[in-house]
Amino acid sequence: MDDRTAGLLSSLHEHLEATGERPLSTEANRWLGEAEAIAENLATSEVDPETAHERVETVLELLAEVDETGDEEADKHVDAARRAGERVLER
User: What is the predicted pLDDT for the residue at 68?
Assistant: First the structure.
């Protein structure tokens, strides 16, 4: 995996990890927790590009379930995570 993609995966994870420190609605917390676990695995493990692509798609599907988190700062992190994931899929 190239350095740019690895950086995007780290960014994806960091933004989702940051939501865990915010006061979230119960429903948003459930979706974001699952997405963050997958993103952490992507950021800390060696995976082939195809697997990374599939897992990022899963993360984005989970994030699509989150309309609002109930916290403005967390919403910003979710938006940034979405952008990072979309950029990975564009590569």
Answer: 87
Three-point CA angle 8, 79, 76, nearest 5°: 110
pLDDT per position as a tens digit, 16-40: 999 998 999 899 999 999 999 999 9
Contact residues for 57 (Cβ-Cβ < 8 A; gap 6+): 89
Displacement of CA 28 from its chain's centroid (Å): 13
Query: Residue 20 sits in which domain range?
Result: 3-90
Beta strand spans in 1-91 (E) = none
The owner of tokens 């989150």 is 66
Q: Report how many domains make up the chain.
A: 1
In degrees and rounded to multiples of 5, residue 46 shows phi and psi of -85, 115
